[in-house]
Design brief:
Residues 11-51 form the FecR N-terminal domain. It is built from eleven helices and 19 strands. It is of the alpha+beta class. Strands 1-4-5-7-8-11-12 form a seven-stranded mixed β-sheet, with no helix packed on it. It has a seven-stranded antiparallel β-sheet with strand order 2-3-6-9-10-13-14, with no helix packed on it. Strands 16-19-18 form a three-stranded mixed β-sheet. The protein is flat, with a radius of gyration of 22 Å.
Length: 331
């Protein structure tokens, strides 16, 4: 099952849900929301689709997509309730999706659609979406699904901060303004002065992966000595420092072509890559997750990828609830 990119109406509906449930929405926001909802039938349908699970969870929110009369009063109540617990929007979004009157189950559903914590990032992608952003200096950033980054450009420096996920940066050279990529575990800096540099960066649970795809890059970990990567080399950045590691560059960047490539890789890691492309849940047993995989699978059709895996490994793939839940276990 392929997950298409979000259309503009869906993106706007998500932004409105986050805004209205943030604890900072006022009367002007409520009026603007009502105008947006009435402006286009696609807006109404997108809001209905997004808020339908809410109607099954909570009575106050049940009225949202059904009629506009009394909208301001209901929104004010929701805002008042949220404001007693949430002072700042960013804090609210980081706080385990405590979005005012938004039901926990609904929040989890929306979270699978798009990472709500990253909606305030300068650049971000939803589930199943890859997107290329042009940068002010002519460089570009390709974000993997469910990824986010912030810009840090001024007269003296060019920079990005990867907040989540993975990205490939194509960096045009500038002698007087270095380009740096801030990661959780350190900094990556382009040293190219003549040709465009290309580097892959990825935030992982325990470390950050860096692959120099074109031109050399310097790594400055939070601890330990600096390290220079030659083109084709990879390294991990962790709280213990930087360490060169064996990594197939073509396999690491395969997601940019819509593929996940595995050579003697645990099935659990492949499933993690597929999760970023599937709105529904994928659950896998510990035993199945430990199996080693060899193959090249499509990210944009996760069910086809899992079916191909089941043909070569002793696993069973169970699809439930119209595809919303997939379970993988040993055969």
């Amino acid at each position: 099952m392929s997950v298409p990119p979000l259309d503009p109406s869906a993106r706007e509906a998500i932004a409105w849900m986050v805004r209205l449930q943030s604890g900072e929405a006022g009367e002007a926001d409520q009026a603007a929301f009502a105008a947006w909802l009435a402006k286009d039938e696609r807006h109404r349908l997108a809001w209905q689709h997004l808020s339908a699970p809410v109607s099954q969870a909570l009575a106050p929110v049940r009225s949202f997509g059904q009629k506009l009369s009394g909208q301001g009063r209901r929104m004010a109540q929701a805002v008042d309730e949220a404001a007693s617990r949430i002072q700042r929007r960013r804090r609210a979004l980081r706080g385990a999706l405590a979005l005012g009157g938004l039901g926990v189950g609904t929040a989890a559903l929306v979270q699978r659609w798009v990472p709500l914590q990253e909606q305030f990032a300068d650049m971000h992608t939803a589930t199943g979406e890859r997107r290329r952003y042009g940068l002010p200096d002519g460089s570009s950033l390709l974000l993997n699904a469910r990824s986010a980054a912030d810009l840090a450009f001024d007269a003296r420096q060019r920079g990005l901060r990867l907040r989540r996920g993975a990205a490939v940066a194509d960096i045009v050279p500038e002698r007087h303004r270095p380009f740096s990529l801030q990661l959780l575990h350190g900094e990556v800096r382009s040293v190219a002065t003549a040709d465009t540099a290309r580097v892959l960066v990825q935030q992982r649970e325990q470390d950050s992966l860096v692959v120099a795809l074109q031109e050399a890059v310097d790594l400055a970990p939070l601890a330990g000595p600096r390290l220079r990567l030659a083109p084709g080399e990879a390294a991990s950045l962790s709280r213990d420092g930087a360490r060169v590691q064996a990594e197939d560059a073509a396999a690491a960047v395969a997601w940019a072509r819509g593929r996940v490539v595995a050579y003697d890789r645990p099935l659990g890691e492949v499933v993690d890559a597929l999760r970023a492309y599937r709105v529904g849940l994928i659950r896998i047993s510990e035993e199945a997750a430990a199996l080693k995989v060899y193959g090249n699978y499509p990210l944009d059709d996760t069910l086809q990828a899992l079916a191909s895996i089941a043909e070569t490994l002793p696993v069973l793939v169970h699809v439930h609830s119209g595809g919303w839940l997939v379970r993988i276990e040993l055969a």
